[in-house]
Write a structure and sequence with these properties.
By secondary structure, the protein is an alpha/beta fold. Helix content is 40%, strand content 19%. The strands form 6 sheets. It has a 9-stranded mixed β-sheet with strand order 5-4-1-6-7-8-11-10-9, sandwiched between helices. A 9-stranded mixed β-sheet has the order 20-32-31-30-21-22-23-24-25, sandwiched between helices. Helix 26 links the parallel strand 30 and strand 31. Helix 4 packs across helix 5, helix 12 packs parallel to helix 13 and helix 12 packs across helix 17. The longest helix has 22 residues. The radius of gyration is 34 Å and the shape is elongated. One of its GO terms (molecular function) is alpha,alpha-trehalose-phosphate synthase (UDP-forming) activity. InterPro entries: Glyco_trans_20, HAD-like_sf, HAD-SF_hydro_IIB, HAD_sf, Trehalose_PPase. It catalyses: D-glucose 6-phosphate + UDP-alpha-D-glucose = alpha,alpha-trehalose 6-phosphate + UDP + H(+). Pfam families: Glyco_transf_20, Trehalose_PPase.
Length: 852
């Protein structure tokens, strides 16, 4: 959908040939947005965006990556020439977005542009390529890319810890600050062109992991997806990163987060659980994280390749000539092929050692089998790259010196850049492709190999194969790369096991032709149907689904810096105004007040759980007003509550979530639910004891009416796993008992059927009605899931209330709830109760004044 701000930019310029001597035309600092813009300063901004749907019909995708999908070349006359980089994934994915989606690209150029030329280049790229370049000062780019990205994130995400200065280096705060600064610059570029209510934003890879926070801070309802193209490490590795929480929270400001494999997604979810206390839920095939009222969706889908581009290059005469040349070069020899970047994670040296082992153990392969290793230039730089190069050259030399002879070179190392047609020609003539990376996010080399082995009529003619015969191919792939799970016909290996890799290479050569054809057919069917267009289309569909409720929700931001997040709640959910409730309180005469205790009258996590003097005083003052009927409704035992509130003579107490009720201090305790016996405890307690013994940090809380297994202090993942097992176990052994098994955060509880806080609310309203008193004011405050039953009862109890009754269901904190209102914390609750007390005492003070 065309942005109004972007349309204005296009109006400024024509799409003619570049003329860098023309008058400079700068992009606007911030987009024009329909609706109200408020607090645009980055440090104070909480929400910008319209609730009004756009009238423009065409969708637009803003694709943000570290590099633009462009090639730049300075011509002899000093001017720049730009062309599309057909190999760029960011360019290829447009095929899956549809012709009705306009694509705008934001990223850096590979070449450095002089500051004096940047404005003209930016305008030209916007006009002709719909690209918005991000120009970074060289020093900042070095700290950002070669510093934080390549020294910290890249090694860590590939499971390499900085145990010594040589292994990635210690954490450098200045590099982190550079990373944040660059992400902020990218955010500014997005803001120049975005129409936040209309556009989708798709951010790519680990270079821009905090960008979602900057965008969400400026536009609370931005429709934002993020895809990580590298592995995501296990929590034991990731937790070593000093800025671990900041990166996790930044990613959670996306609407959809994509990963290549379930393992990567599982590690991310485990990190969110262990470090942020956020658990995921799976519903109807979709995985989601509830984050401050927003559902952050998780997408698991490996990226594909652009098949049409490969097939097009295969049809070029240069490719056909190269295939013929290579066929002649390696006649009477079987070619094994490796194509890897020259970095420490690609396992080139392990592959060479396996080749050496193959020739040692199978002398018959000497002179007949050749390993062609294409070594692409490393993307990073540093000592580790130099070491990989030195080791590779030394190993190749040793193997060739040992096993080579005139007319036979066992290992052919190609370390100079190849044209696309040359690489494809090697794919075509290779009998087997080897990928022995020790860790890789995806690796599309096997996919490209499969498509190239399918060939075409001209290639078949050159190779001398029958076009009607099924094609064949073999793959030996590392089990540590992202594409491995999707290649079910490949021989999977542990690249660290040199002997096993050598045997896999031998097996691949010995596989019968029919089986090679079957494996190839299986792989070709998958790769051809799961191309890059399929991947992009699927991601966009899930992003649309994840964002469909944006305009229906009320959103506002909280937090500072990278701790910023957006609260998204139902439009009818709002903060309880003290003035509003006091006004209603004054107008009414028959009031019911139900208050939870833990987390409501005392702060959650407090060292002391006993009520303070202020809370007790407020409760006593409310009870003194004869128009009020006040109840504390708690999950605690009645003995404890009796001791704590001994001074509140007129206050009602409900203990153990409503099983026991006492209307005032002089009344007897009553059971709300009739229970004939508690013999079920003799069944449940031994089961809980078993799980307590095997779960360090857990304990059993025995109540008169219930048993509670608490795992708050256990390992989060293990405790959660044990809780699920215990829940199923208890439901099984107690299937014929009159009890219910409930699971809540950190606890599994067994209690008599029908016991809930909602019973207390029902009983109170019914009792008041039986006494001829129709409640016209109901206040109910609670903080957790057990209090939702009370909210539900009072909101559906119109038959028991006055037609003009004022009902105030109120939860603690901004979160999804049945309640219509919220207060932030205990201090606000006490302040509100003080307002009610003041309203009760005011008539008394007025009546006590002397008359004149």
């Amino acid at each position: 959908m065309v942005s109004r701000s972007y349309s204005n930019l296009l109006d400024l310029t024509s799409c003619g040939s570049p003329s860098f001597g023309r008058e400079k035309k700068r992009l606007p600092r911030v987009a024009t947005v329909a609706g109200v813009l408020s607090e645009l300063d980055d440090e104070t901004s909480n929400s910008v965006g319209s609730d009004t749907p756009s009238s423009v019909s065409q969708e637009r995708m803003i694709i943000v990556g570290n590099q633009l999908p462009l090639r730049a070349h300075r011509k002899d006359n000093g001017t720049w020439e730009f062309t599309w980089d057909e190999d760029s994934l960011l360019l290829q994915l447009k095929d899956g977005l549809g012709d009705d989606v306009e694509n705008v690209y934001i990223g850096c150029l590979k070449e450095e542009i002089e500051p004096s030329e940047q404005d003209d280049v930016a305008q030209y790229l916007l006009d002709n390529f719909k690209c918005v370049p991000t120009f970074l000062p060289p020093e900042l780019f070095t700290k950002f890319y070669h510093g934080f990205c390549k020294q910290h994130l890249w090694p860590l995400f590939h499971y390499m810890l900085p145990l010594s200065p040589d292994l990635g280096g210690r954490f450098d705060r200045s590099l982190w600050q550079a990373y944040v600064s660059v992400n902020k610059i990218f955010a500014d570029k997005v803001m120049e062109v975005i129409s936040p209510d209309d556009d989708f934003v798709w951010v790519h890879d680990y270079h821009l992991m905090v960008l979602p926070t900057f965008l969400r801070k400026r536009f609370n309802r931005v429709r934002l997806g993020f895809f990580l193209h590298s592995p995501f490490p296990s929590s034991e590795i990731y937790r070593t990163l000093p800025v671990r929480d900041e990166l996790l929270r930044a990613l959670l400001n996306s609407d959809l987060i994509g990963f290549h494999t379930f393992d990567y997604a599982r590690h991310f979810l485990s990190c969110c659980s262990r470090m942020l206390g956020i658990s995921y839920q799976s519903k109807r095939g979709y995985i989601g994280l509830e984050y401050y009222g927003r559902t952050v969706s998780i997408k698991i889908l490996p990226v594909g390749i652009h098949i049409g581009q490969l097939q097009s290059v295969m049809s070029h005469p240069e490719t056909e000539n190269k295939v013929a040349e290579l066929k002649n070069q390696f006649r009477d020899q079987t070619v094994l092929l490796g194509v890897d970047d020259m970095d420490i994670f690609k396992g080139i040296s392990l592959k060479l050692l396996a080749m050496e082992q193959l020739l040692l153990q199978h002398p018959d392969k000497r002179g007949r089998v050749v390993l062609v290793q294409i070594a692409n230039p490393a993307r990073g730089r540093g000592k580790d790259v130099q070491e990989v190069q030195s080791e590779t050259y030394a190993t190749v030399k040793r193997i060739n010196d040992t096993f080579g002879r005139p007319g036979y070179t066992p290992v052919v190392l190609i370390d100079t850049p190849l044209q696309s047609y040359e690489r494809i020609a090697y794919y075509v003539i290779a009998e087997c492709c080897l990928v022995t990376a020790v860790r890789d996010g995806m690796n599309l080399i096997p996919y490209e190999y499969i498509i190239c082995r399918q060939g075409n009529e001209k290639i078949d003619e050159i190779l001398g194969t029958d076009p009607l015969t099924q094609k064949r191919s073999m793959l030996v792939v590392s089990e540590f790369i992202g594409c491995s799970p999707s290649l079910s016909g490949a021989i999977r290996v542990n690249p660290w096991n040199i002997d096993a890799v050598a045997e896999a290479m031998d097996s691949a050569l010995m596989v019968p032709e029919a089986e090679k054809q079957m494996r190839h057919e299986k792989h070709y069917r998958y790769v051809s149907t799961h191309d890059v267009a399929y991947w992009a289309r699927s991601f966009l569909q899930d992003l649309e689904r994840a964002c469909r409720d944006h305009l229906r929700r009320r959103c506002w931001g909280i937090g500072f810096g990278l701790g910023f997040r957006v609260i998204a709640l139902d439009p009818n959910f709002r903060k309880l105004s003290v003035e509003h409730i006091v006004s209603a309180y004054k107008r009414t005469k028959h009031r019911a007040i139900l208050l939870d205790y833990d987390g409501t009258m005392v702060q959650p996590g407090s060292m002391s759980t006993t009520p303070n003097a202020e809370a007790v005083s407020l409760l006593n003052s409310l009870c003194k007003d004869t128009k009020n009927c006040v109840f504390i409704v708690s999950g605690r035992e009645r003995k404890t509550l009796t001791e704590w509130f001994s001074s509140c003579e007129r206050m009602g107490i409900a203990a153990e979530h409503g099983y026991f009720v006492r209307t005032n201090q002089n009344a007897e305790w009553e059971a709300c639910v009739a229970v004939s016996d508690f013999e079920w405890k003799q069944i449940a307690e031994p089961v809980m004891q078993l799980y307590t013994e095997t779960t360090d940090g857990s304990n059993i809380e025995t109540k008169e009416s219930a048993l509670v297994w608490n795992y708050e202090y256990a390992d989060r993942d293990f405790g959660s796993c044990q809780a699920k097992e215990l829940f199923d176990h208890l439901e099984s052994v107690l299937a014929n008992e009159p009890v219910s098994v409930k699971s809540s955060p950190n606890i599994v509880e067994v209690k008599p059927q029908g016991v809930s806080k909602g019973i207390v609310a029902e009983r109170l309203l019914l009792t008041m009605q039986q006494k001829g008193v129709t409640p016209d004011f109901v206040l109910c405050i609670g903080d957790d899931r057990s209090d939702e039953d009370m909210f539900g009862v009072i909101m559906n109890a119109r038959a028991s209330l006055s037609p003009v009754a004022e009902v105030f269901p109120c939860t603690v904190g901004q979160k999804p709830s049945k309640a219509k209102y919220y207060l932030e914390d205990t201090s606000e609750i006490l302040r509100m109760l003080q307002g009610l007390v003041n309203a009760s005492e005011l008539p008394t003070r007025i009546s006590s004044l002397p008359s004149h």
